[in-house]
Specification:
It is built from eight helices and no strands. By secondary structure, it is an all-alpha fold. It has one domain. Helix 1 packs across helix 4, helix 2 packs across helix 4 and helix 4 crosses helix 7. The two termini are about 25 Å apart.
Amino acid sequence: MGKTDVIAGLAAGLTGAVTIFLYLTISLPLFLHIAPVNLYEWDASNIVGLYTATHEPVAATVLIGQSAHIVVSIIWGVVFVALLRVVASVARLPVAWGIMYGVFVMLFMHYLVVPLGHAPQIPYTVAGFTNTLVAHTLFFGVPVALVATRLTGAVARSSP
């Protein structure tokens, strides 16, 4: 993985972090009546535990939660760039691959990563599952795929 790939992975991950965060900041209160600060608390609780995350000052919770969110998103951005380098069809169909990648990230995080942390496992409701699916596919996977494909120049190389 060269310098261009690392930069593309960082940029793709940061883009995904911002777009999913913006979507969830709007959708959680609108559709699920959940305050955005609860998202920070939940993210932070993976590191420090739920009690600590909910009893820390809001600024500390936001800093811990957002930092964790950004680091994990960057990791996923770098992983997507690696996928882009290995699977040729990713560059030709970045939106489709971004949607599939978003589903994979959602399932991987929900069933493998989150249970390893200290956050409570939140059962999905239909509305919660739908919101999470939209967030991870359209507002994380697709932006990551588009930015990664664009910054690596993979589109030009994959064309006949």
